[in-house]
Amino acid sequence: MGDMFRSEKMTLCQVYIQNEAAYSTVSELGEIGCVQFRDLNDNVNSFQRHYVAEVRRCDELERQMHYIAGELKKDGILIDDLVDDLPRALNPRDISELESTLDRVETEIRELSQNNVNLRANYTELTELRMVLEKTQSFFHNVLDTTTHFGGDETHAQSRGQLGFVAGVLNRERSFAFERMLWRISRGNVYVKRADLDEALIDPQTGLEVHKTVFVVFYQGEQLNMRIKKVCNGFRSSLYTCPAEAAERAEMLRGVRTRLEDLKLVISQTADHRRLVLSNTIKNLPRWMVMIQKMKAIYHTLNMFNVDVTKKCLIGEGWVPKKDLANVTRALENGSAEVGSTIPSFLNELESKQPPPTFNRVNKFTNGFQHLIDAYGMANYREVNPALYSCITFPFLFAVMFGDLGHGFCIFLFALWMVLDEQRLSRKRGGEIWNIFFGGRYIILLLGLFSMYTGFLYNDIFSKSLNVFGSGWRVRYNSTTVLTNNNLQLDPVVASISTYPLGVDPIWQLADNQIIFLNTLKMKMSIILGVTHMIFGVCLSVVNFVHFKKYALIFLEFIPQILFLILLFGYMCFMMFYKWVKYTPKTDYLPDTPGCAPSVLIYFINMMLFSASPQAAGCDEYMFEVQPVLEKIFVVLAIICIPWILVGKPLYIMITRKLRANRQQISSLGKNAEEGANNDDHDIGEDEPISEIWIHQAIHMIEYILSTISHTASYLRLWALSLA
């Protein structure tokens, strides 16, 4: 409870570590994870620090492992990033062995990858050639397949007046532009035949599927031949030699098919060898990644240390929770003993005027709530931690607005499954959305539980009601009246014989004004609970002011803030309770006339406008006699609180600084001046310029006023949206 109520006490410590024990000692400190080291080399470039060479070696090892992981992903081999038993950091003496292993694996994988690309390229070329030879059979089917019409040698064919042709393969999406370009350069003196390939080819460089088209261009003339080839090169088409005679084409096709079968066998054997190499690597790759990341973190930490004048030890400074000082001392001893250092490492506590970092110790239950609070901003050192109260208030306020027994039960079952099976699910590979759900499983569990509770109070389960205790309303009309009227109005004075024991009476499920009644009830509940929650949050600031002995801020900030909140929105909540008590069915009901119960919202708006609220005939204008005078006083006081919040703290700081300066000038003894200064709240904005204080206070005032108004209005807005 003490750890959750406010952040833990921190102390600044200085450690002295021998050079030979530095790595093992920082490794031990990293395993317990309770030291935040300060960088003592801010003025030193990152590339000029002592352990920059070791960091570069770790970067190179990380690059190699990321490359291997990428190749595993290409082959569809999944890597389990979560390791059951996290290994310790790699011993510096073993890094050379790991470097040689990764170098060998990377080189072998690169060679296999390059060979695979080359084999795939050859296979693609042979496949395209096979497609060209097969498709040209249909192109030449209706033409005499002799050298009388087509010449195999282009030079002699042109001299004898025979037709020449160019065959190749082109990307399908470029085929229409390709034909138009050929038509333009030849002025219509070419004949193009093409056929789309049924199966997609694999690009050896990218591994993506590519749809292609086989084409044959018939032409006559040497100049036209040169132009056609330039166009083919421009459209990045692949040209293949295709014999003019059918017998030669058939013989060439048989040879290509034989080479393709042999190439398939070689590719299959290469893929098996590559998969074997990667499978042997994947066994140790996750552990290697963790070890190298820890090793790199150790060297980054050591780069923040100072080297002693004698260059025999390293000096580091860091913030440590006071509860963990014994663990840190034990880690220093273990680090020195691991390497057999004759001189032990030791720790000194330092006095510091710098504000310590905020550290909140959490467990798996409170971790989600602490992250939720930290998302709005980190608290200052030793301030009250709202996460303790948010464990209950956040799920409850959610449930007040959600309030459904059926849907709440579904949420509860989903969260209960994640909680009971968290050991197995923690190893599950999921995306960002799954990680958010699993990290907040205890929050979702409480959301479901509280939603079930409020849903039971609202008597709402999947928009239906449950008649658990029996309705407290009775219909006192005779059978004829009930059967002959579509709508009947129940008089609460006569028809309501008892109060429903817990929650909303199920008879409201049948009422025409069900939505109006239930949404009004929920809206008022939300406003009352929301204002109470805001008042509680403002009151927590008093605990901080007392703890830090800033008693002046109780008068300068807390009192105007709580007055503004209570005089306006607290008064509105009071009016709701007063309305419920004063206007009962017996006192408010008049035959053939509307009730006299006023609208609290209209009262509140007219209160801010200093105007009267119109009422029905025969009804009082106000709920009690002194109401108009009291409301005007409340509004005036609330308006006065706004400049009070704005100028109170800055003016107080200006006055205290001036008085302190005068005392220091008058007093000749520094001790007396110091004692006189200590009597005031001198730590309130002591290090900030007065202009910054004015700006911060103005921002704080605007945020507070607008947040109180917007938060209260949001409850009204949420229920209005749910009604819509």
Automatic annotation (TrEMBL):
It is found in: Membrane. The chain crosses the membrane at residues 396-420, 432-456, 527-546, 558-581, 633-655. One of its GO terms (biological process) is vacuolar acidification. It comes from Ceratitis capitata. GO terms for cellular component: plasma membrane; vacuolar proton-transporting V-type ATPase, V0 domain. Essential component of the vacuolar proton pump (V-ATPase), a multimeric enzyme that catalyzes the translocation of protons across the membranes. Required for assembly and activity of the V-ATPase. Its main location: membrane. It is a multi-pass membrane protein. GO terms for molecular function: ATPase binding; proton-transporting ATPase activity, rotational mechanism. Keywords: Coiled coil, Hydrogen ion transport, Ion transport, Membrane, Transmembrane, Transmembrane helix, Transport. Belongs to the V-ATPase 116 kDa subunit family. Residues 95-129 form a coiled coil. This is V-type proton ATPase subunit a.
